[in-house]
Amino acid sequence: VGLRHLGDNRARVDRLDSRLSYQTRLKARSIRTPEMVHHLKDIRRCDEHDDVDFRDENELKRFVRPGKWLSLNAGSVRLLRVNVVSTGIAIVLLWGFVIWGLVKPRYMNNQVTEWKTWITYNFTWFYIGAFNAWIIFLLYVAFSKYGKIKLGRADEKPEFNNISWFSMLFSCGIAVGVYTLGVAEPMYYYRGSHNLQGRGDTPTDDERAQQALLQTFYHWGLHAWGPYITVALGLGIVCYRWNMPLTMRSAFYPLLGNLIYSPVGDIIDAVSIACTTFGVCTSLGLGVDQIVAYYAALQNKTYTALERLDAQTATIIVMTLVANISVVLGLHKGIQVLSTITFSLGLFVLIATLFLDNTWFLLNSVVQSTGHYLQYVVQLGFRTDSFEQLGIEFGTNNLLWGSNKASKPDGVWSGPILDIMNNAQALRTDYNSSTMPFNYRTTFEAGPEWMMNSWTIFYWGWWVSWAPFVGMFIARISRGRTIRQIVVGALVAPTLFSFLWLGVWGSLGIKMQRVAELVLGDGTPNTDGSSSCAAWGYDGNAPNSTAAIALANDGYYAVACRGYPMLDIMAPFKEVKEFLWGLLLIGITLYFITSSDSGSYVDDVISANGLANPPIGQKVFWCWTEGAVAIALLRGGYEAGQNALGAVQAVSIVGGLPFTVSICFMCTSIWRALKIDSGDADICHANLFSTGTLDIFDLYKTGPADEPSTARYTFAERLANYAQSIFAPFVGIFKTCESLFGEGSVLAKLHGFVNFSFFVLWLVFLIVSGSDADYAWIGWTFYVFMALQISFIRGSVRTQHNIYGNMFEDFFGALVMYPNVVSQLHYQSKEPAPSNDVYRKPVTAA
To answer: How far apart are CA 572 and CA 772, in angstroms?
Structure first.
């Protein structure tokens, strides 16, 4: 009877779950032990606690380990409020890079460019897959039951109205790039001799024009906003619902727990500051190039390469000074006002060009291109150019991991397959051996293998490197909005507005190019999308034939032969053009400033561990750090004899890779946070592992930041077991399997033997790979199977002990840090397994 009565009470509690607050539900389920929630002691949910004022330094210190917080005053003036560890790491990274770029610019540029190429060739699949996963994850969360969760209290209203919110969102997200590449990018695809298969049909020039706009829309569409919103949700949920500091490490609290206060959290914040700075510098480099060009057009000036570089450097210095003023004024007085002004200016120029030209053609193009995007976005979104990039393996720039040899003395990178091909072709007598092997792209009519390197992966790296900055900024301005509002508003609205912007200006560029070809061409179809600038009467970027000059005097150019087509598309508007050029100059300058001050604001908040009002001197320091990095990158590219923007573009990909990995983990953290916040029983009432896989980074004493940490096992015990797990993982596996299948059981012995075999074979094949490198890959295959076995055992342990997790986490942990996982399993095997989980298993009367 008692058990039946207990079951009835539990059923009644479950019926009330949807109407009770989170903390009340936990109290009502007193018979259950919410170990996961009790473990995350720093959760102070906004609906159960008053808001925390993180302008209060004492409140913030609860989230910083003793010895890491530096508070320095000069009399009554605040000088510094920083986490010295994360800030120190970020400063060393950034200013070390600046010094490297100024002392050895050529070497720096070459190295960064090679890193960029290596990352693109080897991790295209990862970038493409991750971006698609983020979009799917965001849409699922938005339209699930979690979409109604608000960043803040249930009755809280948004801090900014919709217009201000959207203008700040768009300004900090993509605005500088649209000014820079809004015409140049579609024109590059339209008349760049690219055979872009798989991106829509190109049997006619009309389809090629459509393909050019489609590819541009893809780069600036939903995928561009995916990393931003993911970071925004990760921060917003934890910081505004759980009252934790607005700093990047907080987003990982649901996943890492108290480890965010350890060196792991310091590295997360330091990498976020570095990524933010590199990402902003990419936009600053592109923006300053346009500012100088617009100013030169208004003054009818021309610059040499060195003069242009000096002008860009001076512009960065002046704009950084102005950005300092905006940062000092703060979010409401500075950034919000500037964002609204710049957004309005851009919108004015956009609408003006729409009215001044063929309005109906432009609207048709925008609608049609949007339809093509919706039709092809899945196909484009998963395209990695796998067969185009296959040609890399057959060339002399083979940076594919595992398929190339050491660099030859002449700096050429090639793989064994090229040597095989060269040796075989030398025996042929029916062809001239000097022309063989034949060109891969010509032979198979393949598209450009560098498309991902130059465009798509550059964009993805750029967006990711901006994610800490834009994501935190979106979180900051989105308080009081629901997850569904943020995903729909920040994912769909900016995308559609970008399509209008890019569609209008890109179509104007294509229209102007066709005007030029009708007058200056020979009337034959342009079947390959090539540009014949000399035949069209152009020398470099300037018209030099009588017809080309006459056409230019009336405002029409062969845009494919020009350096700054954004100015050219407004040239037909006669006297109005200089007015529009002036607005463009003001608009991109202000966008430059808003990007700089927004990035500085985010760097400053992260370095201050989430302090809401850091000292002004820190804000100024981060502003100038961004300016210095941008100058170093521009000068590095120039000194290397390349396009000054080359190093700027390369560093965005290099800086974006580590944060791409971080955002993938952040998705897991967001999911856990949503389930915990909603009181989902599968996680709130799950047990925990007795030890953590990453405890070693906190010297095995992981605890809250403001409390002394205790450990169940001594440091010597943990370290000794960790060493055993490295060199003899099969011992820990056997002990764990005994706890699963019984002491001395056949299955335990079998698992121990299998693990021993995989481990030994892995090492043996690595050793013998000295005679033949292929043996190493056989060895690593055995290693993967060992990781699969460990992940299976970990999943079984989680089931036995009712520990929340999933098989992907199990496999990833076993693959990248098997000693940590084996050690964790060894200690968990010492814990008694629950004899009867009355929550998960319905109790019935005997």
So the answer is: 66
